[in-house]
């Protein structure tokens, strides 16, 4: 089983165990909303634009609510579990495109619960996430107000944020935790953050991610 399938299966099991009303780290969303989002992302390409573009968000929201009404929570969970449709089924594409998405949303559910522990990720998955961070750091940190130096535990440095920023913050952690940090989960990532108090506060509040 590849990592995308493993994350998908574990997230689906967690959805089923917690039910539709459990909190997530996605502001305003329950597990029901997040399951609908994942199904929309993988099965309704016509509604994807609103995820990134505000003028299209109204249509995306309506499609997501329609999925909740038509499929119900158990139906959505089974669609998440069964995997994507369409071009995502091309060999290797699910692993390439969806591994990080599923990992992040799996942690959105796990870390919103009262009790949780960080997971020990396989070494090859950590390496995959680190390569993704290095390739996308300019995009992930484009809204950072400060220069950011990421230090990967186990080796590796990546730098992002505005080059001319007078303030710099150092962030140290494992690749999976740095990925969560770069995708706007700063307060919930298990990382060490160092720098001036003002710079750290500004970074922690910044809308990072795609």
From TrEMBL:
Domain of life: Bacteria
Signal peptide residue numbers: none
Domain annotation Mycothiol-dependent maleylpyruvate isomerase metal-binding: ranges: 5-43
Name of the featured protein: TIGR03085 family metal-binding protein
């Amino acid at each position: 089983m590849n990592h995308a399938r493993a994350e998908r299966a574990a997230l689906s099991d967690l959805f089923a165990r917690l039910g539709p009303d459990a909190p997530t780290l996605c502001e305003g969303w329950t597990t029901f909303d997040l399951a609908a989002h994942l199904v929309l992302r993988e099965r309704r390409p016509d509604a994807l634009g609103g995820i990134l573009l505000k003028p299209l968000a109204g249509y995306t929201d309506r499609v997501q609510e329609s999925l909740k009404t038509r499929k119900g929570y158990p139906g959505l969970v089974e669609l998440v579990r069964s995997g994507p449709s369409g071009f995502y089924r091309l060999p290797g594409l699910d692993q390439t495109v969806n591994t990080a998405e599923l990992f992040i949303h799996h942690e959105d559910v796990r870390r919103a619960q009262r009790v949780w522990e960080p997971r020990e990720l396989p070494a090859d998955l950590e390496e995959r996430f680190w390569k993704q961070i290095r390739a996308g750091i300019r995009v992930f940190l484009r809204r950072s107000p400060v220069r950011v130096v990421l230090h990967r535990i186990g080796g590796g440095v990546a730098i992002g944020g505005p080059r001319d920023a007078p303030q710099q913050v150092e962030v140290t952690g494992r690749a999976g935790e740095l990925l969560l940090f770069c995708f706007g989960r700063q307060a919930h990532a298990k990382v060490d953050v160092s720098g001036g108090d003002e710079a750290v506060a500004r970074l922690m509040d910044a809308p990072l991610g795609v």
